[in-house]
C-alpha cells in the first residue's frame, strides 16, 4: 500500500506523501461487519448444528437455497428467508444477520459499478480510474478503503491520481450551520448573482484543496468579470452586425498582412492563454486557470485591446484594418468561450452560439491548441512596458486632477532602458493613443529637459549681513525679477543693481543662487524605464480638444437617454459662451463624426431641439446641448441591403428625400443619377434588387395598424383587418378581392355554393346564406348580407378605478376594449382613440354613436388626427377629460404614435395625460403590444402608469 501511495499522483503532494502515508503506516484492524438493518448483507450462512460456514459468491450459487425467488431483492428482510442444507451434518444453514460496513461498498465501487467479475470487458476498458476527488477527511475513508481493497484484490490502487478539495465556510470563517446563523443558501446566491458567477468565485478564490471563507463581495466581483466579458461581446456583435462582418468569409490567415502590432499582441496573449489554462488544468490548479482567464478578459481584452481598436471599428465602409480587428476580436471571443466552458458553462454557451455556433454546443468543441507562429514573447514584453508607462501617466493625471479626456501636451522619457527604447520604437502610437498624449520624446541620459526654467533663490543670511532689515524686501523683489537677466548681469558685471526705497543697491553673486527647475504644470517621475517628464500645461489647442471631447461625451449620454442605437443619426445644437464658439469651430467635424450628428450648430443663440439638457460646470463653463433623432437608421439599413450601396450612398439617397426602397424604385434613372455619389451601376442594382424582392416578398405589414404580416393568418393578428384591396366574405369572413362575386374559399354567391357554418355572432339576428335551390344562376351581383364581425372579448381583468391610468400589454387589443366597454356599461362617458377605422370598431364592439372616437390616420377626414400631430391629439383628449367628469379614455395605437414620433415625445404626452386624468377623476387605458417596443422603452412606459395589466 505504501508503494502504491508513492506511485499515485496526489494533488496537493502532501496529501499523499504526508497525510495518506502516515495514516497507512498507523493503520489499525478494521471490523468490516456492522449490526445494522440497512446495507449490503454478509454473504455468510452458518449451520445451526455443527457451525459449518458457507460463503455465497454469486447469485447463481444463491439460487440453490430454499425460498429463493427469481428476481428477488437481495437485501434484508428478503435475503434472510433463504436457507441452505448443511453439507456436513444436514442441519439448516441460516444467514448471519450482520451487514457490511458501507466503507467496504465504497472501496469496491470502482469495479462493482463495472459489473466485475461478471463483465470482464468493461473492466479491462475502464479500470483503473484516472482521477478521483473528495474532501481531505477521506484520507481515512474513501481514499483508504479503495486503496486496501484494490491492493488486496488486484495488488494495486484502483485510481491513478487524487485531488483533495477544501470546505466552504461561513462568512465568519466557521463551518456553516443553521444553528450558528452563518448558513448561506446556494439558491439565494444564484438568484442574486447567477450560477456562473458562483462557480467562477468558488474556483478562483483559493486552491481547490484549501478552505474558502464565503464572501458576498467576491461573488459580486466574479459576476462583474463576466459582465465585462459580456460587454465586450455586445461591443463586438454590435459593430460586426452593422458592417455585416462574416468571419467565415475572412479567415485569419488571409488577414495576416493587415494585422497591426496590437492585433499581433492579442493573438500572442491568446495563444499563451491556451497553453496556460491547459497546463493549469492538467496540474489541477483550477484557481490559477480561472485567474489567468480573468486577467485576459479584464485586462488584455476589455481594458486594453477593445480601447485600442475603437477608432478602427468606427470607420465607414470596407477597410482591411477594420476587418483584421474584427477577425482577431472574433477569434479571441470564441477562444475565451471554449476555455471558459468548463468553469462557466451557461455564459460560454450563449457567447459561442451567438458568435460561432457551428457545433451543437460549445462543449462539443475540441480543446484549443496554441499556434506557435502567433506567439511573440518580445512583442508581449514591449506591450507590457507601454502599459506600465500608460498606468504611470494615468496616476500622475489623477494626482494632478487632469481628466483622461483631456490630452497631455507631451511626455518625455529621459535615459530610457534598452528594452523600453525598443518597445517605444515599435509601439509609440499605442502609448500616444492609450495615454491621450499629443507628443512623445526620448532623451539621452546626458541631455537636459528642454522646458526647464531658471529660478532665483536669494540667500537671506548673505543679504542680511549687508542690508540688515531690508533683506526680506530685497528677497521678494529678486524673486520677481527675470532670472536670466539677473544671471547675465552677475556673470558679465559681477553684480546686479536694483533700486529699493529710492536707493540703488548692489546684489553680489554670493547673495543669490540661480537654479533650473521644472515649470509649473510639468511633473517628473522616476520609473524602472527611465526618468519621465509629463507636461500637463493646458494651451488653447489642448483646451479646444478637451472641450470637444467633453461635448462628445455629453451628446453620447443624451443619445443613451433617448434610447438611440449606436448607428442612429441626430441633429445637434450647442449653445456655448461666446469664447468657446471660435475655440470649438476647428473641432466641428470631430464632434459631428463622434456623435453621429448629420448637422451641428455651435453658437450663442437658443437651442430648439427635441431633447435639451443644460450641462453646468464643464471646465467652468455651462453648455446647453440639444439633439433631435433623425430616424434614418431603418431607411439606411434598407438601402445598404442592396449590394454595392454603401452607407455614404444610402445617406445621399436619404438626404435627397427618399425614405424607403419603394420610393427609390419609383424614381427615374435621371432623377437618381442627379444624386451625388449615385452611379449608373447603382441604379441598375437598385432596380434589380427591388424586382427580386417583389417576387419573393414576405407578407406585407398591416396597412391599418402596421403590425408585421403573418402568412398563416388571413386577417391582421393585431387589429383584425383584412389585407388591402379585399373585402370580407359575408359567409366565412375570409378576405376576398374587391369585385369578386363568388367567394373562392366557401363558394358563397354562386350556384351550388358550399356554405361553411358561420361562427357564433355577438348579436342576433344573423342573416342566413341564400339556399342553392333558390339562388339565381349565375349570380351576377354580390349578395348584400350585413353581418357583425364576431369578436369574443375576455372578462375585464379588474375594475378600472377613477383618477388612474392603466397599461394593458397584449398582442390584440381585447382586454383594453373589455375594460373600456365595462366602464361605459357602468354609466361612464367614453372617448376612444384608435388606429382602426372608427366604423369598424363600432361594428366590432357594438359602440353607440354617442361615444366619440378619434381616428389616427393621415387621410385628413373629419374626426381624424395625423399621428405626427401630437399637439392636436393632446388638446382633444384634455378637452374631453376636463369637460367630462369621470370620463373614460381608451388609447389604442400608441405603437403607431411611437413609429411616427420620437419615443420620448410620446412618453411626455402620456405623462401629461396621466396628470390630467388624476386631477379630473378620469380613467385612461393604454393598449400596447409589448413585442413592438424594446425592454427599455417598455420599462419607461410602465413607470408612468398606475397599474400594468398583462393579458
**Could you give the count of β-strands?**
32
N- and C-termini, Cα separation: 70 Å
Largest sheet: 7 strands, parallel
What is the radius of gyration? 42 Å
Shape: flat
Give me the secondary-structure topology:
Layout: H1 2-7, E1 9-11, H2 14-25, E2 33-34, E3 44-47, E4 53-55, H3 59-62, E5 84-85, E6 92-95, E7 99-100, H4 102-107, H5 109-112, H6 120-126, E8 129-135, H7 142-154, E9 159-165, E10 168-169, H8 186-193, H9 195-205, E11 212-213, H10 216-242, H11 261-282, H12 286-313, H13 320-340, H14 345-355, H15 377-399, E12 410-414, H16 418-434, E13 440-443, E14 453-458, H17 460-467, H18 471-480, H19 483-493, E15 496-500, E16 503-507, E17 512-517, E18 522-527, E19 530-535, H20 540-561, E20 570-575, H21 578-584, H22 588-594, E21 597-603, E22 611-618, E23 621-629, H23 633-640, H24 647-655, H25 661-666, H26 669-673, H27 680-695, E24 726-728, E25 735-737, E26 804-809, H28 815-825, E27 830-834, H29 838-845, E28 853-856, E29 864-865, H30 870-883, E30 888-892, H31 894-900, H32 903-920, E31 923-928, H33 935-943, E32 947-950
Parallel strand pairs: 1-9, 8-9, 10-11, 12-13, 20-21, 26-31, 26-32, 27-28, 27-30, 28-29, 30-31
Antiparallel strand pairs: 2-7, 3-4, 3-6, 5-6, 12-19, 14-17, 15-16, 18-19, 20-23, 22-23, 24-25
